[in-house]
C-alpha cells in the first residue's frame, strides 16, 4: 500500500509484474466455494475507508441534478445528508442500482433512472 487509495499489485503468474493502481481500478477477487455472501459483497461495495451507507432514502432534483438522502451507519438520522446521485453511482454502483431497481415505482426514482440512463 502506497497511500490509502494507491496500491502496488503483483501478477500471480509469470512474469509476476508489479504495477501501481488507484483502488478504484481494482476489482474484487472471488473464488467459488469461499462462502462470499450477498451481505459481504454489499459491505465490500460500501467500504472505502470513509463512512458507510446505512440506507438510501428520498430523492430530489436540484438545478436539474438528482440527489439522494443518505443515512450513514453509526450516525443519527439528523446527520444524514443529500449526495449527488452520480457520486453514488460511481462510489457504490451495485448497491445504488439495486436500490433504484427496488424503488422504481417511486416517481422520483423513476425520473432519476431515466435521467441517468441505466436499466
From TrEMBL:
Q: Matching SUPFAM superfamilies, A to Z?
A: Chromo domain-like
- Kindly give the Gene3D superfamilies that the UniProt entry links to this protein: 2.40.50.40
Q: Sorted alphabetically, which CDD domains does this protein's record hold?
A: CD_CSD
Instruction: Report which superkingdom the organism of origin falls in.
Output: Eukaryota
Residue span, Chromo domain:
51-88
A Pfam family? Chromo
In Swiss-Prot or TrEMBL terms, this protein is called: Chromo domain-containing protein
The organism encoding this protein is Aphanomyces astaci
Q: What is the lineage of its organism?
A: Eukaryota, Sar, Stramenopiles, Oomycota, Saprolegniomycetes
Amino acid at each position: 500500500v502506497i497511500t490509502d487509495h494507491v496500491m502496488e499489485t503483483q501478477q500471480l503468474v509469470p512474469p509476476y509484474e508489479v504495477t501501481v493502481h488507484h483502488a478504484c481500478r481494482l476489482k474484487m477477487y472471488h473464488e467459488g466455494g469461499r462462502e462470499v455472501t450477498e451481505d459481504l459483497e454489499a459491505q465490500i461495495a460500501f467500504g472505502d475507508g470513509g463512512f458507510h451507507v446505512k440506507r438510501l432514502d428520498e430523492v430530489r432534483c436540484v438545478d436539474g441534478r438528482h440527489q439522494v438522502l443518505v443515512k450513514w451507519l453509526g450516525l443519527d438520522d439528523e446527520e444524514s445528508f443529500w449526495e449527488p446521485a452520480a457520486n453514488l453511482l460511481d462510489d457504490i454502483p451495485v448497491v445504488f442500482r439495486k436500490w433504484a431497481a427496488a424503488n422504481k415505482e417511486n416517481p422520483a426514482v423513476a425520473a432519476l433512472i431515466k435521467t441517468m440512463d441505466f436499466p
